[in-house]
Amino acid sequence: MHKRYLGGLGAVAVFAAGLAWTIAAQAGGGSGAAGPTGQPGAPDMGSNDFFAPDPAPVVTENPVYIADAKAQAKAAGLACQVGAVRFGGEHKLKVSDQKSIKAYAYEVTCQGGYGYVVEGPEHGSADTVAMPCPALEQRDAGASTEGGRCVLPGNHNGPAQIQALATRYGAPCTVTGQKWRGLTKDRRDLFEVTCKGVSPGYVLSVPRGGEAGAADTCLKYQGELACTLTTPQQQLAWMSGLAAGSDRACRVTKARFVGAADQTQFYEMGCASGPGFMVETDRIGAYHRAIPCDSAGGIGGGCTLTDRSVLAASTTATLAERLKAAGVACEVAQARLVGREPTGHRDVVEYACADRPAGLVVAFASDSAKTEQLDCISAAQFAVTCQFTPRDKLLATLSRALAAAGRSCEVTNYAYLGSVEGGASDLEVACRGAPGHIVVMSADYARARSSESCEAAAHSSLACKLPENH
Predict the structure, then answer these.
(1) Contact yes or no for 449/425 (Cβ under 8 A)
(2) C-alpha span between 77 and 126 (Å, rounded)
(3) Exposure pattern of 80-97 as b/e (b: 16+ CB <10 Å)?
(4) N or C: which end of the chain has fewer CB within 10 A?
(5) How many Å apart are CA 414 and CA 431, to the nearest integer?
(6) Whether the Cβ atoms of residue 422 and residue 449 lie closer than 8 Å to each other
(7) Dihedral, CA atoms, 303, 306, 309, 312, nearest 10 degrees?
């Protein structure tokens, strides 16, 4: 049983199609195949092929075989309390393109779970491999490739065992179909399942070492690992149901899985008209909340299914209402969510206001007393760079304010020094081809209230520090 590794999400190790589960225990009479430690073969197998169609489920009572089967299961990392054992004979196990080893195969049942077929060198080793019985049963159902299925009592009810796992892992799924997808590098078998009714399909991650398993929607698996039993149309129908749970007026025309974080998943909805939004769910798809696109910029790159002009108009309208509710005056032309403070957890929003030449940045807090408004000059102290009121516009605004106060200065640089009474600001400005100044600027930036040359301010607490002023 030669292994290969798939790229993409999860880097799954999948047993190659040329599975070695077509071994003959003994083609001739009752002499049997040689067993571990030179024991005679398995006469109780008779002439049955180990995986011939519907073989008699013969349970071995040979203590050597039973001990070796348990050692093989342990070497394969299975949390399996071995019950019944069926010996499958001796054969060559391909462990690489250049190497094959003598190996012994067994079918085993496991208390409280599905069984496995294990094979490896005597007593087991790092080369021992195992295949879960539901995976073999699913392969056999295809009837198009070589292979077989488990036949011991309790090992041939794969659908019921997979349904039990789906239920245990919390997937709201009445299983109608299953497919083994492979084994991950951290030793988890992946089973894709389809479900009765509208469903995204699920992938069950079943650890071999006894750790906690989990279920995820198929939409989490992309590229080479994308589910194949549930169609994109069925998944779209399921995501449309998520949108309906949001109480938003949206006929979903497009939808996509955005990403996952911890136990949370995110989906984006594109609507026939108007802006889309994102939906947050738990990992099995239970609805948590809807997130407007203007608040989803930090989730997987933000919304991509809504036209940018539609999204911008919707965002501006929503943020303008928020500004109005906070009692901040602004003739809003544009608005955008800059981000969220990592410590204060305030939403930081930039506005372009027809009546505010220096722009506006507002940090909204749930406690209105902690909401703070700044202009784009003073916002620089919080590492906010305005997009609607860029630096060249701010330089022109400062030049005009100084000219209104009788100071001829083409401002080429500035530094915010702090606020003063009445919303005014202390600034240092550098002038092209002329000495710089310390300026008290009015709140509306229409006129400089006062100014002092850098030379005169040299010995004050507001001494000039810009490179151009030295």
Answers:
(1) no
(2) 10
(3) bebbbbbbbbbbebbbee
(4) C
(5) 9
(6) no
(7) -40
pLDDT of amino acid 54: 47
3-state secondary structure of 390: coil
The residue behind tokens 């129908």 is 237
CA–CA distance, 164 with 283 (Å, rounded to integer): 18
Dihedrals φ, ψ of 294, to 5°?
A: -70, -10
Nearest to 336 by CA among 282, 297, 381: 297
**pLDDT, position 34:** 55
Residue 146 exposure: Cα atoms within 13 Å on the Cβ side: 10
The pair of three-digit structure tokens given for residue 35, joined into one six-digit string: 């067993």
Please identify every stretch of the chain with a pLDDT value under 50, giving residue numbers as ranges: 1-33, 38-55, 140-147
C-alpha 166 chain-centroid distance: 21
95-118 pLDDT, tens digit each: 777 788 888 999 999 998 899 999
Phi, psi of 372 (to 5 degrees): -130, 140
Return the ∠ at Cα 314 (arms to 309 and 317), rounded to 5°.
Answer: 125
Q: What is the pLDDT of residues 143-154, one digit of tens each?
A: 333 445 788 988
Using a 10 angstrom Cβ sphere, with 0-12 exposed, 13-18 middle and 19 or more buried, the burial of residue 22 is: middle
